[in-house]
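Hi V.,

You were right to ask for the full record rather than a summary. Here it is.
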Amino acid sequence: MDELLRIHLLTVELPTAAGWVRPVNEVTLRIARGEALGLVGESGSGKTMLSLALMGLLPPGARVSGEAFLSAADGQRKVLANLSEPEWREVRGREIAMIFQEPMTSLNPVLRIGTQIEEAIWAHEPGLPRSVVDRRVIAALEQAAVPEPEVRAKQFPHQLSGGLRQRAMIAMALAARPKLLIADEPTTALDVTVQKQILELLDRLRREMELGLLFITHDLAVVAKVAERVAVMYAGRVVEEGPAASVLMQPLHPYTQGLLAASPTLERGKLTPIPGTVPQLTELSPGCAFAPRCAYRRAECECGVPDFRPAQSGHAARCVLL
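Predicted structure:
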């Protein structure tokens, strides 16, 4: 499949009272057209910061280095690094769209759902007639499987259930017909039944529209339902990447093994938590960031950040044990 997004050694640095920190540290990833990549890790691992870097929504003062290339709809290859705000407005929504974790904090509470979707369309196609935009709004809601779209378009966010609000967010994200969709934990606040419906919807839309999908989650059970490939992040770095079935059935990195052991399943009654917590970015060791929590750590783990092993493999991890 054609490559849609390529990230190479992307680094995000943020200023803090203790100095500069790197919530995203030399990340290299790729997503093809119509492909779903699951990005997994604990809170604080850098997943959301990576998505904000791809949307041009980083906090003021952030520094970005490395490369990120997007194959745009017009066939051009756009460089997603250090764009000006007007340039980001051309990309944001039209080329890359994002579904945020909590729709009630993302939707405007005093605007009707249809009005908010209209804004997403007019931001990139200001000359469209009202009648065309109205049809696009209803079509977007239908595409997101919102029942009674004409009624829902006239309602306010507080009048919708959590599942319908998330579907409205999906409709808004897809209204300008982007090629890459970033979903940042879109099912976290939903019950299991609605969660399954949203996952199936995203998977169907990805296939029908040939969307590239970056699905961010901490739930390995969820990522298994959506993603074809999985990348595991820890302390700002990708520590394992490969086909979803391979990563989830035969994890190579001790961190991925720990995440799976700590995930509830029907077959396993006992959960084994990973000891310790994700380290502060100001206190990272020069070696493997997971070493202080790892049961298999060796002296060489402290010497430097491990390279991906085995090299040039479809499934690899940053670990000296391989």
